[in-house]
């Protein structure tokens, strides 16, 4: 096990001669890249929403906010889902609406309890389709152990809603002693991913574009609360968890590195990329690190607990393929570097926008 966790020291990349050509971002209107979970999304939050709303709770910009209320610690999260198509291999927009919010709560260590659900329906949506999605949402909520406690329905004119959008918000209880946030990450922490990456994005791509990649790719959409509970049962002293959805593993690692002020070194060959995902990305010129996931998490764990946490993850159905992929380091703070199979290094930067829009 120690051979798996320990990673060789990172070579210092020479950054002085690098250039990073990017599309112009001097925009006067919202573009699709603003919703991609990358640099443009961060700029929208930093320059538009955060100054307007203010407040210390929002400043954390986590997957959910942890609130003190009546002597209890609550996690509170909201998310909107605009995926196209409404149904895809492995799930639907309804499954995403439940699991996406439940997983955001789980990344704070919370046991999700209640959801709200808002449906924005486009005039002309077939009622049998709506019925299937309502049933799917109810089934997903029951599987995740949460109750839909309140909701809302609105209808917009034909041509203005893309069939159906869903918003869900959720609340859950955070156990005593659990404090998951990137500021707790320190050099030496071990980085663990719970399984194969890129499945959701490639599954959406396959049905949206009518592409075949030699094997059926199914979304990994799933609720992660049970997996997180198994990890916390080993030790409540996990440092941070993130579900790498929009922007993929690359965005999650960069957000953590930036907030923690540490560098991250990833061993590229240790990152589990399924052959169909690797083949699809090679065919389309994409990087699996940037492809969205909906049923995976990445954890920064103190080294002394990493072996036991990894074993607990592998004993859970949603963590059977969990793998150590790297560590936090003092060098290059705020930067994520991958060591390649050839012994070189490459920077895994925060994506500008989104390789594949409308994936959640």
Automatic annotation (TrEMBL):
Cite the PurM-like C-terminal domain residue spans from the record. 187-332
- Pfam family name, one: AIRS_C
| GO biological process, any | protein maturation
Q: Which Gene3D superfamilies match?
A: PurM-like C-terminal domain (3.90.650.10), PurM-like, N-terminal domain (3.30.1330.10)
Recorded coiled-coil stretches: none
Q: What range(s) does the PurM-like N-terminal domain occupy?
A: 63-174
Q: Which InterPro entries match?
A: HypE, PurM-like_C_dom, PurM-like_C_sf, PurM-like_N, PurM-like_N_sf
Identify its protein family: Belongs to the HypE family.
Q: Write the protein's name.
A: Hydrogenase expression/formation protein HypE
Q: Which organism is it from?
A: Kitasatospora acidiphila
Give the encoding gene's name.
Answer: hypE
């Amino acid at each position: 096990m120690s051979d798996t966790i320990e990673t060789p020291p990172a070579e210092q990349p020479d950054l002085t001669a690098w250039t990073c050509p990017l599309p112009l971002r001097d925009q006067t209107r919202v573009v699709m890249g603003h919703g991609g979970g990358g640099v443009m999304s961060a700029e929208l939050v930093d320059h538009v929403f955060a100054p307007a709303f203010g407040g210390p709770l929002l400043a954390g910009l986590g997957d959910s906010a942890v609130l003190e209320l009546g002597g209890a610690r609550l996690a509170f999260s909201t998310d909107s889902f605009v995926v196209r198509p409404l149904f895809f291999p492995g799930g639907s927009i309804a499954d995403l609406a439940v699991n996406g919010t439940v997983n955001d709560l789980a990344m704070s260590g919370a046991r999700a309890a209640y959801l709200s659900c808002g449906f924005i329906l486009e005039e002309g949506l077939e009622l049998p389709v709506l019925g299937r999605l309502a049933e799917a949402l109810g089934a997903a909520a029951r599987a995740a152990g949460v109750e839909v406690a309140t909701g809302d329905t609105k209808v917009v004119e034909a041509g203005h809603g893309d069939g159906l959008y869903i918003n869900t918000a959720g609340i859950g209880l955070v156990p005593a002693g659990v404090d998951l946030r990137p500021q707790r990450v320190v050099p030496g922490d071990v980085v663990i991913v719970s399984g194969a990456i890129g499945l959701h994005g490639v599954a959406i791509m396959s049905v949206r574009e009518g592409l075949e990649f030699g094997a059926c790719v199914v979304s990994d959409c799933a609720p992660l609360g049970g997996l997180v509970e198994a990890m916390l049962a080993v030790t409540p002293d996990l440092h941070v968890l993130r579900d790498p959805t929009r922007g993929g593993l690359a965005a999650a690692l960069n957000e953590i590195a930036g907030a923690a002020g540490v560098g991250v070194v990833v061993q590229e060959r240790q990152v589990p990329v399924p052959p169909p995902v690797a083949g699809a990305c090679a065919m389309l010129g994409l990087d699996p690190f940037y492809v969205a996931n909906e049923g995976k998490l990445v954890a920064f764990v103190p080294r002394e607990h990493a072996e036991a946490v990894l074993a607990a993850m592998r004993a859970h159905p949603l963590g059977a393929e969990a793998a150590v992929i790297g560590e936090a380091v003092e060098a290059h703070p705020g930067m994520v570097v991958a060591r390649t199979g050839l012994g070189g290094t490459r920077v895994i930067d925060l994506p500008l926008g989104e390789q594949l829009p409308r994936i959640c």
